[in-house]
Write a structure and sequence with these properties.
39% of the residues lie in helices and 15% in strands. The protein has 370 residues and is α+β, with helices and mostly antiparallel strands.
Length: 370
């Protein structure tokens, strides 16, 4: 372990991240368990989670994830950072109320002027009443219906406020099913899952916040409180961190920040070999931190936020990739050695075969930058 006076190098943190994110060695986990372990999978691009789970699970079958969506064991819903995530039904119900205040705050950060003078509780009640008939609706349809009562804001604003913030909703299949291109139609989480979301905890307690701390560290640690906040978007977690701190161990990173972790979680030797991995757009392993330097250079920090897919070489973002005319095209961000090109091409062929259902394994690596 690259550890001096409890200090962890960026490389050591990177190897820990790969291990927790199931990217150091593909895991033999059921798909539902993998989604739960990761604390959900960011999924605003509906097909991207399939690549992310293929890169993490041995023998991943995309039909299994599709089946979990159809069977209501995994749901597409707005949660962490007010973005669409795939989460287990249990986590959606348990976590949604804890995210309510953050969802409202972020929504108002965008639409405060549009919604000025509107009582958000009244808007939420009207949204629930509209959805009570069990008819799935798009955001646009919700907004148009509510626009009759609130003609000031654009229907798009009203629809997004209700569907993505004020009323717990699920995006229904076939949205998010493998190889299906379908628009987002929504119904309430309660209607889709057959029970109401868990109510907020009594004042002075935060069991969900404490669970989020533990779950985050299991999948992302060692990490700072700022990293936890960047992952979930919740600002009010200091008390939860303080409550679980006696269970945790503490390190320092190269910047001197305190990093917390579960005592028995894997922290591999920093010289552990790291395989090439192809990540989807908006992957957890990059977006799940405030300080992403453990896995991506600062110069490339914005790649995943911009929706570009990344290739990990020796545990770090070293290239981007797209699919063009069925070919996996890799664009290096730094100079590749001959060995780099060989291992990237090998994994790229596997990605191409997965994405083409085994029809071909075509991959092309663009010339490295000089």
């Amino acid at each position: 372990m690259d550890l001096v006076q409890n200090r962890l190098s960026s490389r050591a943190l990177g190897r820990a991240t790969l291990a927790r994110q199931l990217l150091l060695d593909r895991a033999d986990l059921p798909v539902r368990d993998a989604v739960a372990h990761l604390g959900g999978v960011q999924a605003q691009e509906p097909q991207e989670p399939f690549v992310g789970l293929w890169s993490r699970l041995r023998g991943f079958d995309p039909a299994v994830l599709s089946g979990l969506l159809v069977d209501r064991q995994v749901v597409r819903t707005t949660l962490m950072r007010r973005t669409i995530h795939l989460v287990t039904a249990d986590d959606a119900l348990a976590w949604r109320s804890r995210h309510d205040a953050m969802l409202r705050q972020r929504m108002l950060g965008v639409y405060r002027q549009d919604l000025a003078g509107i009582d958000l509780d009244e808007l939420a009640a009207a949204g629930r009443e509209l959805m009570a008939d069990g008819q799935p609706r798009s955001q646009t349809e919700v907004g148009r219906a509510l626009n009759e009562r609130w003609p000031g804001p654009a229907p798009r604003v009203l629809g997004e406020a209700v569907v993505a913030t004020l009323v717990p909703m699920a995006q229904l299949p076939p949205r998010g099913v493998w190889r299906v291109n379908a628009g987002a139609r929504n119904t309430t989480l309660a209607a889709w899952l057959g029970c109401d979301v868990d109510p907020p905890a009594p004042d002075g307690t935060d069991p969900v916040g404490e669970q989020l701390v533990r779950r985050y560290l299991a999948a992302y640690g060692p990490a700072a409180s700022a990293d936890l906040r960047a992952w979930c978007g919740l600002a009010g977690l200091p008390a939860a961190v303080a409550a679980v701190r006696p269970e945790l161990v503490s390190f320092r990173d190269e910047r001197g920040r305190e990093l917390l972790d579960l005592p028995d979680a894997p922290r591999p030797d920093p010289d552990t070999p790291a395989p090439v991995r192809f990540l989807p757009a908006f992957d957890n392993a990059i977006l799940g931190y405030d300080d992403r330097s453990r896995i991506v250079d600062d110069a490339y920090r914005g790649l995943s936020v911009a929706g570009e897919r990344a290739v990990l070489v020796d545990g770090r973002v070293a290239a981007t990739w797209i699919v063009a005319d069925g070919v996996v095209v890799v664009t290096p961000l730094r100079r590749f050695t001959r060995a780099d090109r060989a291992t990237v091409a090998e994994e790229g062929r596997l990605v191409a075969a997965f994405l083409s259902d085994g029809e071909h394994d075509r991959v092309r690596i663009v010339a490295s930058p000089r």
